């Protein structure tokens, strides 16, 4: 158990380091990209400077049409400056959103990887059940400190598996169906018992817990991954 706690702590520490390094890398890369974009964008007053230069270098433009043309150029320069300022704001907002999305994606990926590792450890070690109490009278099962309400059919299937576990037996689908239906094993279908097992797993709800609690033994049948002394059938 201490080894498990140590491995979980190490996994969390490694995940935190990955997130920290990733966040710093993302912010640094996007900061460099923002600096590059803002430095390479033309100056908002560049167009106005060119128009002003035309005014200075062509003081002979005195006709009404020429002056009107210069005014239009000046207004165009002002509009260009405003549009460029808007572009800068849009680029800044997009970079902020990109930073947030990349950080969220990194955290999500690390969380998924950490969860997969923990699930892998659970699959290797199996689910540890301190007590499994099957109560037929109220169609409930007490698994450690968790209580589940099941259908009568699911409780009957779980009770059969629990009683078989007390005897150290592994039941096939046909044997499960035979015990529940009261018929001979030869008259029962393997698929019927497999269907009962599937419905029991569905009734338990948590797929990971159900798959680990009710294990399938190749070419033999089904059994509970619970110590016999932890099983109680009422």
How does the SSE layout of this entry go?
Blueprint: H1 2-40, H2 46-57, H3 64-125, E1 132-135, E2 140-143, E3 146-149, H4 152-167, H5 173-181, H6 190-204, H7 207-213, E4 214-217, E5 221-224, E6 231-233
Parallel strand pairs: 1-6
Antiparallel strand pairs: 1-2, 2-3, 4-5
Structure notes:
The chain is an alpha+beta fold. It folds into 2 domains: 2-125; 132-233, Arc Repressor Mutant, subunit A. 68% of the residues lie in helices and 10% in strands. It contains 7 helices and 6 strands; from the N terminus they run αααβββααααβββ. The strands form 2 sheets. It has a 4-stranded mixed sheet, covered by helices on one side. Strands 4-5 form a two-stranded antiparallel ribbon. α2 packs antiparallel against α3 (64-125). The longest helix has 62 residues, at 64-125. The radius of gyration is 36 Å and the shape is rod-shaped. The two termini are 31 Å apart. The model is unreliable at 1-6 (pLDDT under 50).
Q: Tell me the strand order in the biggest sheet.
A: 3-2-1-6
What characterizes the major β-sheet? 4 strands, mixed
Compute the number of strand runs. Answer: 6
Q: Which structural class do you get from the secondary structure elements?
A: alpha+beta
Q: Give the overall average pLDDT.
A: 78
- State the distance separating the first and last CA atoms: 31 Å
Which range does the strand content fall in? 5-15%
Point out poorly predicted stretches.
1-6
- The number of distinct structural domains comes to 2
Query: Could you say which overall geometry the principal axes of the C-alpha atoms support?
Result: rod-shaped
String of helices and strands: HHHEEEHHHHEEE
Helix content: 55-70%
* Helix segment tally: 7
Radius of gyration over C-alpha positions, nearest whole angstrom? 36 Å
């Amino acid at each position: 158990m201490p080894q498990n706690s140590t491995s979980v702590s190490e996994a969390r520490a490694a995940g935190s380091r990955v997130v920290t390094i990733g966040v710093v890398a993302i912010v640094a890369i996007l900061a460099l990209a923002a600096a590059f974009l803002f430095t390479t964008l033309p100056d908002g007053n560049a167009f106005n400077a060119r128009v002003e230069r035309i005014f200075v270098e062509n003081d002979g433009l005195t006709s009404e049409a020429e002056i009107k043309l210069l005014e239009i150029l000046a207004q165009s320069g002002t509009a260009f400056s405003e549009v460029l300022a808007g572009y800068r704001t849009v680029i800044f907002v997009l970079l902020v959103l990109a930073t947030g999305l990349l950080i969220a994606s990194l955290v999500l990926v690390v969380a998924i990887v950490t969860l997969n590792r923990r699930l892998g450890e659970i699959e290797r070690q199996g689910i540890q059940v301190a007590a499994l109490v099957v109560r037929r009278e109220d169609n409930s099962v007490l698994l450690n400190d968790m209580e589940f309400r099941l259908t009568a059919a699911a409780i009957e299937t779980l009770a059969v598996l629990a009683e078989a576990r007390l005897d150290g037996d592994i039941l096939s689908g046909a044997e499960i169906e035979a015990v529940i239906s009261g018929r001979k094993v030869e008259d029962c279908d393997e698929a019927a018992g497999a269907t009962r097992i599937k419905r029991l797993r569905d009734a338990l709800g948590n797929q990971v817990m159900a798959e680990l609690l009710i294990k399938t033994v190749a070419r033999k049948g089904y059994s509970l991954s619970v110590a016999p002394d932890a099983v109680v059938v009422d």
